[in-house]
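Below is a filled-in request sheet from our internal design queue. Each sheet records the structural input a requester submitted and the sequence that came back. We keep these sheets so that new team members can see what a complete request looks like end to end.

REQUESTER: design group, bay 2
PRIORITY: normal
MODE: inverse folding
CHAIN LENGTH: 397
BACKBONE (tokenized):
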């Protein structure tokens, strides 16, 4: 297992020297300043790589091993005429990365929005803060702030009544905060930051796109990318839709084990793989994570090892729990990943080790009141990583 850590670049308040102290050996990063759809020039990749890798000889070196993510332009997702240039640029970015020795690439195919939460500072009983998705608040936003066309068809009458009550009890500041949390963009997001009108317009582009059509668009993109990835020895790792279910009437096609079965049946290339984002998949109760870790073992190139705790009554609501204290058995998931590594060793497979990283740490102790990227705190993630490292060591003994 390779312990990795996400770094957002020179503006990240958690610096490369901070990361060096965590014990992580590999860096997960991206060229966040390059707009979606453009090629990542080799010089820019090398410059970013130097920021990560160059250090004084007495220091522990770090390596940029994983890209998270190269954004997939909306025109590719929509399969609009003229999208070929964006596919070519995506492939060119992958080629340039491979030339610099960076060969594990995480990406997603979520339309319009990347990961979505309603609360970025949900206070836990111990005083730390977590990220939370609250289905009722989400409905209040969708129905009464965004006022999306036909949104009411996605909710039953008691959900609508409850959402109205929540909306009416909110102050103007709370409405603005909720809106910003959902559409103004989170760190690492692959999509633009929207105002309400732009957001409505972006959603309406998908009005006539069914899940089947959308899946075809994903497969059309991959059928161009995968042959080149194979030649280059690049491993692609698709990240699931977070939360993994329908939202805003958008097609969402990487949510369950069945979705992954369909993906691999259509495109069996060994370069076609996944990011096992344990927290995302486990935020729906019908995803059995240890089972998925086993079933898709050979396809797992990267894993985010966090978990969520779902509300008892409303299973679509959750907060991000301590890495070992979520609704799923993280120890069993780690065991399956270690078994997969053993299997690879027996088969003399080249990519023996799976990159893992802690994800969405709590804001705790000195993280609190420090400007930072929600979910990407220093101490909170360090706690997650240290716990997971303990599990790995114990299971490997
Ligand atoms: C959230 C992340 C996602 C992820 C992308 C991958 O913290 O897990 O933003 O980076 O969806 O493409």
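RETURNED SEQUENCE:
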């Amino acid at each position: 297992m390779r312990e990795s850590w996400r770094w957002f670049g020179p503006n990240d308040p958690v610096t490369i020297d901070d990361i060096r102290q965590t014990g992580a050996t590999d860096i997960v990063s991206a060229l966040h300043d390059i707009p979606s759809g453009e090629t990542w020039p080799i010089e820019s990749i090398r410059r970013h790589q130097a920021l990560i890798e160059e250090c004084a000889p007495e220091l522990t070196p770090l390596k940029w091993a994983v890209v998270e993510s190269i954004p997939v332009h909306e025109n590719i997702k929509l399969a609009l005429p003229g999208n070929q240039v964006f596919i070519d640029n995506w492939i060119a970015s992958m080629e340039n990365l491979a030339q610099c020795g960076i060969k594990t690439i995480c990406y997603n195919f979520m339309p319009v929005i990347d990961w979505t939460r309603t609360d970025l500072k949900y206070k836990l009983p111990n005083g730390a803060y977590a990220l939370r998705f609250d289905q009722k608040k989400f409905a209040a936003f969708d129905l009464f702030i965004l006022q999306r066309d036909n949104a009411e068809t996605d909710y039953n009458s008691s959900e609508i009544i409850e959402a109205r009550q929540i909306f009416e009890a909110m102050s103007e500041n709370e409405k603005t905060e909720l809106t910003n949390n959902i559409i103004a963009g989170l760190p690492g997001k692959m999509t633009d930051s929207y105002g309400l009108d732009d957001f409505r317009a972006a959603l309406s582009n998908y009005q006539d796109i069914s899940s089947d059509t959308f899946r075809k668009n994903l497969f059309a993109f991959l059928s161009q990318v995968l042959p080149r990835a194979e030649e280059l020895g690049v491993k692609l790792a698709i990240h699931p839709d977070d939360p993994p279910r329908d939202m805003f009437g958008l097609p969402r096609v990487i949510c369950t084990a069945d979705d992954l079965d369909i993906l691999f049946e259509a495109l069996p290339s060994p370069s076609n793989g996944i990011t096992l984002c344990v927290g995302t998949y486990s935020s729906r109760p019908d995803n059995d994570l240890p089972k998925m870790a086993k079933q898709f073992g050979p396809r797992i190139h990267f894993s985010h090892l966090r978990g969520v705790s779902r509300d008892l009554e409303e299973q679509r609501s959750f907060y991000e729990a301590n890495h070992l204290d979520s609704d799923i058995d993280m120890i069993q998931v780690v065991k399956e990943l270690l078994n997969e590594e053993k299997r690879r060793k027996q088969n003399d497979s080249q990519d023996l080790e799976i990159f893992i990283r802690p994800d969405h740490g709590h804001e705790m102790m000195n993280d609190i009141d420090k400007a930072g990227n929600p979910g990407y705190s220093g101490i909170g993630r360090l706690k997650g990583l240290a716990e997971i490292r303990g599990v790995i060591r114990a299971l490997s003994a």
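SHEET NOTES:
- Residues 2-114+210-314+328-396 form a domain with the TIM Barrel fold (CATH 3.20.20.150).
- The chain has one domain: 2-114+210-314+328-396.
FILED BY: M.R.
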